[in-house]
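Subject: DNA-3-methyladenine glycosylase 2 family protein

B.,
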Amino acid sequence: MSSRFVPRPTRTTVRGGEAPIPQGTPRRHTAAATRTWTPPTPLNLSLTLGPLRRGPADPTFRTTPDGSVWRATRTPQGPATLRVALRAGAAEAEAWGPGAGWLLDGLPSLLGAADTPEDFEPRHRLVAQTERRRQGLRLLRTGLVMESLIPSILEQKVTTDEAYRAWRLLIRKYGEPAPGPTSARAPMHVMPDPRTWSRIPSWEWHKAGVDNKRASTILRAARVAPRLEEAAAMDPVAARTRLELVPGIGPWTSAETVQRSNGAPDEVTVGDLHLPGIIGYALAGDRTADDTRMLELLAPYQGHRHRAARLILLSGRTPPRRTPKMRKANIAAL
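Prediction pasted inline below.
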């Protein structure tokens, strides 16, 4: 395992010539910090970092044709943009902004350095087949709570399309432009700081389709953001307990958050509308499974139940739909 961390310009030279610049990227010369980290096992960037993406038009997340993943976020040191690409088995990263050093320091954790997939033992043929087909999946750890908590709150009790729309509108309007040479055609934004979240007017939540219950939960979380960010350094159980002290944050939301912020391989999302039925159908042909039944089926994977659930979702084996999808309720039109 090797790593280096040095500042240099954004121009990157790799085997075969200069790395391609995404179409639409401003051609200005911007100072960047860089780091190369070689993972101990094969790494699939899209599978590993995919959970950070909130829909195809997420203004905090981009992929480019050259295989790079771009991420804009707010670190304890300030806003930053990270670009990661795999070259000859090594993860080459560039970062811009006040939080660039913080992001590069955490690059191994982000790419699953603390994950232990070698300890995982498939107990079902479907899981074993998916693990073989989806090699390079590692569970990420961002070390950041609010960036996963707020979109998880937006996803409470609504369709994913509605939640993704709300996230997109709020980030574009109240976030700040991401530092670095991001695409002019699809500009990236860093999520607002807690103070800005707390000052969003009620009518703007309404226009984004966010009801008062979810908006109020986000406002309560923003008021205690420093205390919630401390949860990133806790074990996952303690972290979830800390998050659930905030009214409106329950087991579903806390699990969805710590899976990303803490790299929690055993934290299962309970209270989900579809997940129990998917896991029940995939492992036992039981499409009517509830949370209790889901946890029974995942019990052989104790310690890695979240990993098992992810592999089941990646298998594509889902029960045939018999009931209509959750109805969209656009409160912005009311």
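Residues 1-29 have pLDDT under 50 and may be disordered.

T.
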